[in-house]
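pipeline/complex-builder :: batch 7 item 3
reading input block
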Amino acid sequence: MSKRTFRIWRGDAEGGEFEEYTVEVGPGMVVLDAIHRVQAEHASDLAVRWNCKAGKCGSCSMEIDGMPKLGCMTRLGDYPESHTITIQPLKTFPLIKDLVTDVSWNFAQNKRIKPLQPKPRDADGEHRMQQEDVDRIQEFRKCIECYLCQDTCHVLRDHDRKDAFVGPRFMIRVGQLAMHPLDTEDRIPAIKEELGSGYCNITRCCTEVCPEHINITDNGIIPLKERVVDRYYDPIKMLLRKVRGA
Amino acid sequence: MVDLNELQTFEHDVLVIGAGGAGLRAAIQCAALGLDTGIVSKSLLGKAHTVMAEGGMAAALRNVDKRDNWKIHFRDTMRGGKFLNNWRMAQLHAQQAPDRVRELEDWGAVFDRTQDGLINQRNFGGHRYPRLAHVGDRTGLELIRTLQDHGVHQGFATHMECKIIGLVKDGDRIAGAVGLWREHGRFVLFKAKAVIMATGGGGRCWRVTSNSWEYSGDGAALAYDAGAELMDMEFTQFHPTGMVWPPSVSGVLVTEGVRGEGGILLNNKGERFMFNYIPERFAPETADTKEEAARWLSGDKNARRPPELLTRDVVARAIRSEVQAGRGSPHGGAFLDIANQRPADYIKRKLPSMYHQFKELAEVDITKDPMEVGPTLHYFMGGIKVEADSQMSKVPGLFACGEASAGMHGANRLGGNSLSDLIVFGKLSGDGADAYIKALPADPKVDGSQVSAIIKHATDILNREDGPNPFVVHEEIQEIMGEGAGIVRQGDELQTAVTKLGEIKPRIESVKAHAAPQFNAGWHEALDLQSLVTVGEAVARAALMREESRGGHTRLDFEGEREEWQKYNIVVSKQPDGGMLAQKVERPDPPEELSKIAYAKIEDLEAGNV
Ligand SMILES: Cc1cc2nc3c(=O)[nH]c(=O)nc-3n(C[C@H](O)[C@H](O)[C@H](O)COP(=O)(O)OP(=O)(O)OC[C@H]3O[C@@H](n4cnc5c(N)ncnc54)[C@H](O)[C@@H]3O)c2cc1C
Ligand code: SF4
Ligand code: SF4
Ligand code: FES
């Protein structure tokens, strides 16, 4: 056991400041463990969200030394021993208290996406899909809704265009429906208009922070942008569509 | 006294408490039946415990092995539960699980596929055939996200980060519940004609557990306080494979899927010790040589199952015995090896989150090295006693489903039978609530004095001058339960646990949480203590009463199953003086048709002779 110091942001929407806490740390400990120790020993009213403590629920999102990360999957051993680790709430969402932010905007975005419109079942009552046809959407379905990608995307973080762009999390959510072998809904107009795919300029910052290692940009957003381009801006396709009356 | 007019109030036909698989499925059913429905959860939507489930959900879909059918699933469930299950619940579950799983596909679930493009199914402990529909090792995430994404379009109201702290009754009947918003610490009243408890289990009574902070047993404790009975509380499942190192992750689950995919257990001498622990009842269906186990793994349908896939109680006790005999791994567990059984890319594809979990939390590459694993408190077979078809408790209008309810799993739950339990009984509890409300003569009335008492009890914790630290008291409870009511138990130790829990109650009543009510972890912990101590006492008292070893309950002073005890469930209820009473309640005789199936020979079931 040795001691370690943490700078943790304390405060609410009105304001606040960093406070330093020193606690005992042991082998294999993660940032969330240290926060719990601070709670138990120094500040029982320190607010933090967590559930699974195994990187599966996406509750413990925070900014650790400025990087959006899961507190339960960030090992203290990854930082030099004498270094004071700084822990603060996600910047992109309104602060509630300490490390807890109001992420309800994300739930509202999810609700805007029309659910799966499945085609009818086969005569024997089954749906059939080949594994290779669902590999891609299963990648997107690994998402644990930690919103770290939302936090880091500059469209939402720096430009605060939450009115125009649903963000990377919900691009892959709609992407997963658009690429679903059973879905019958035409999602391209919504992707372009309401969900705002054009706002993404492919910086790939979202992909870098995703704890599930989902290739958000290359496998999700870029293919969707291509579909939008094919539909709206490809002159030959547009002509063909006119001819076919589609 | 609280002025009810000042108090924020919601009115629903049904209030579902808990937004895991069971609660969401219940809410979807209530909304489908046209009921005004609200759902409450302590955490954000989509974060409930269900999200952590890994291996899969069991249903006799017959996509991988045509010999399977509901009767064999039913039989496996009864045998796994050591015949203490509620017969009717086990039947309903086995019959209805396939339809409940298929319907998830229409709601967006994307399970792993077979060659023919159907839902793939994997092997799991205690299941005769590959039966678990799964998505890699993140099946729970798939279930909860599917229900969540479908649910938000069904028109029920969602109340997130709200902890229910008391139920309100009108005479005998349920009338609503009082909640506390975690965010700002204000109170809220939910008036409801029916309440469905879907709050999960109470694993936080122990230190080494796979359960999250939410598992403080609130549902069981709230229902108990409101007059419902708790049943089978002595049956607590210790999952054989939790992480043991490093200490900060001890207890975190290692899915049974590792063994389902071929992982084997070794002691520090490199011996595959499970061959030495095969119980008589399972001997005819378990491989007794490495060679036969290997054939089974490569798909030989005539080979018998490897002993690593025996039921959880058996494997957990075996690991404990090896450790006690000095043959454990360096940190007091056993070695679980998949690296030498399967190629690296196969492991990464089939067990991706296990691969990451060990890589990131323990710096172990499971495609190269063995994992160190040991038993961890995982699941409550016991909970609120309900009527099988309607899921209603003894309190009119109070229903329960999912891990919060009792009966379905008997003395031991088979892996994969929980996720299917959630969707089968989640739906049935919605049906039950609907039928109850339709027959209700008049709307229940809320009594303000009950509401005031609940709120005062909670605010006292903030208002008192001084008192014990709730985090410390929680650790004390965990210590008592770990020492007195752990994986193996003894009469005198259980008695000590009961006594010590009694002694700790006044301390719980005097804990103090500091500072403001907003998002105050200490205050929430203090409120959880009330549930933890009730549930802990129920476990200890029931365990003391059951003088035999069966499933998730092992008594060193009463080894082995005793026939006499197969006739009883233990039921716990609150006495008028506030004390807890545990009673032996005789089980009704099973319907002959079901008993025939449960005890039939497997060949006859496969051939359709039963
Ligand atoms: C790591 C792990 C892996 C597992 N793997 C499998 C598996 O592969 N297959 C399988 O079948 N089972 C598995 N299980 C078991 C299974 O996941 C759980 O039993 C099941 O998910 C419980 O679901 P539930 O809906 O009953 O409760 P939960 O999903 O736990 O939901 C409980 C809900 O109740 C809410 N709640 C609790 N108290 C209150 C309160 N006072 N007020 C308001 N809300 C409250 C919580 O916020 C939460 O929303 C696993 C369990 C764990 C821990
Ligand atoms: S790639 Fe697009 S969505 Fe991702 S961070 Fe950059 S702009 Fe945002
Ligand atoms: S896509 Fe990745 S980073 Fe974004 S919410 Fe999902 S898991 Fe988190
Ligand atoms: S607590 Fe669940 S992801 Fe960190």
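note: The longest helix of chain A spans residues 216-232.
queue -> next item
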